[in-house]
């Protein structure tokens, strides 16, 4: 991480929380090493089987430090070195980068509406790339994934006013929500909305989502060779005709 001074921008100390003690991808390590952050910011890495418990423990352990915002980033992302500085330009409670699900069909990870179905479970409507054509700046959302999320410190106090139990109740297992199986991030977003704390996605700041993919030689029924990309055990996606190296 590189200490950075941004002209005309207030120096804000950021706690950067990496949700993996042993990162899986080299491109993430390269990104985090090149990341520019305001002077006085610091990095905390967490590991272990209980993600939610460790998220809360990290906040509790860092509670005596004078950080003003926390930025969560998972080890399966790649980003530009000024990503954090660009998010800090927004004086909003919660803002995150634009990213997508890391496997086909690569949909946005942020939701525009939510409702409860007949069983009382949350049903979310996802933004589509077509809807976002021509849009720039901040986009209000009802829920979004945690990774890439920048949060002001006072947001946590507004969610859990009792300072004695504050850090133990910030992140919760999704099963605590009685209205459906949701993760800790969507549960957090639901509580933000209940507290009238808006959530924004910065459409001008994007981060990449890393996932192993295999490139297969693929022969079509007509005998033409092409390339197929396959994520895990999903269906391969065939590309156009194989490129001619002699052209």
Quaternary form: single chain
CATH architecture assignment name of the largest domain = Alpha-Beta Complex
As for the CATH topology of the largest domain, it is Spore Coat Polysaccharide Biosynthesis Protein SpsA, Chain A
What is the arithmetic mean of pLDDT? 88
Quickly name the level 1 CATH class of the largest domain.
Alpha Beta
- SSE order, as H and E? EEHEEHEEHEEEEEEHHEEEEE
Distance between the termini: 43 Å
- Strand segment count: 17
Count of individual helical segments: 5
SS strand fraction: 25-35%
| Cα shape | globular
Low-pLDDT windows of residues: none
Radius of gyration: 20 Å
Decide which structural class fits the backbone: alpha/beta
- Percentage of residues in helical conformation: 10-25%
| Main sheet properties | 7 strands, mixed
Major β-sheet strand ordering: 4-2-5-12-7-13-10
